[in-house]
Amino acid sequence: QVQLVESGGGLVQAGGSLRLSCAASGQTFGSYAMGWFRQAPGKEREFVAAISGSGGRTDYANSVKDRFTISRDNAKNTVYLQMNSLKPEDTAVYYCAADPSPKGRTWPGAYDYWGQGTQVTVSS
User: Fold this and answer.
1) Distances 104 to 15, 63, 122 between C-alpha atoms, Å
2) Closest CA to 102 of 59, 54, 37
3) Which residues on neighbouring strands pair with residue 73, listed in sequence order?
4) Is 30 in contact with 98 (CB distance < 8 Å)?
5) 20 to 30 A from 106, CA-CA: which of 39, 46, 49, 124?
6) Are 120 and 9 in contact (CB under 8 A)?
7) What is the CA radius of gyration of the chain?
8) What is the mean pLDDT of each run of 10 residues along the chain (124 residues)?
9) In angstroms, how far is CA 89 from the centroid of its own chain?
10) CA 114 → CA 14, 28, 35, 46, 86, distances in Å?
11) Residue 8 burial (CB count, 10 A)
């Protein structure tokens, strides 16, 4: 069982930055790939970024590539999402999730555990 708690969301102007954190419980954090997803009102949950258990492999949605960076600190059981050059279309609830596969996959159904989400609002 893995419990995930996100933090770091908020309101920011377009062009600004935010750093999301996701703290995980349990001693098996390093055995899970981790992903970030987001869901805007009236839209489906979409993939944002993923990182392998070791942190050596990352994957990004095209819409956030070169603006967002996913990282993890296995000693702290935490995964991060650094978001730069934010745009109004990045507004959504952001969720972190744990994937038991070695490489983080890009579809929500692959993930076993989810956090409660944190709101990110980007004003124009």
Assistant:
1) 28, 18, 27
2) 54
3) 78
4) no
5) 124
6) yes
7) 13
8) 95 98 90 97 97 96 98 96 98 97 92 97 97
9) 16
10) 28, 15, 10, 14, 24
11) 16
